[in-house]
Amino acid sequence: MTPRRTDRSLPDPNTEPTISIPRAGRILGMSRNASYAAARDGRLPTVAISPSRLVVVTAELLEKYRLRPVPTAPTAPTPTARATTPRRYGDRQTLPTTRRTA
Question: Can you give the pTM of this predicted structure?
Fold first, then answer.
């Protein structure tokens, strides 16, 4: 048995312009069957991308149900690596070697 998915986070329309019907239903607290029924009835804003595939338009879903995605915190810039010139074979430092005398 597969684990039940409980992802109810709101998608960002800029990164996810469309979502699946079951995911839209999870966001609204519906079961899978209820979300497909809502898509048939027009309660979910869907668009057909093929004769047998419907997807929900994220921006229209958020607007219709007055949902707002939680803004993500801006990521801190990653520190850049210090610019170094690559070492060539002849530039290597040599460690002093000790010779064993037998």
Answer: 0.61
At residue 88, what are phi and psi to the nearest 5 degrees? -100, 165
Tens of pLDDT, residues 2-49: 555 566 788 888 899 999 999 999 999 999 999 999 999 999 999 999
Domain count, the chain: 1
Distances (CA, A) of 27 to 5, 35, 56, 61, 100: 11, 10, 12, 10, 75
Token pair 């993500």 in the structure block, residue: 72
Is residue 53 included in any domain, yes or no?
yes
CA torsion sign for 70, 30, 61, 2 is positive
Residue 39: Cβ within 10 Å count: 19
3 belongs to a structural domain:
no
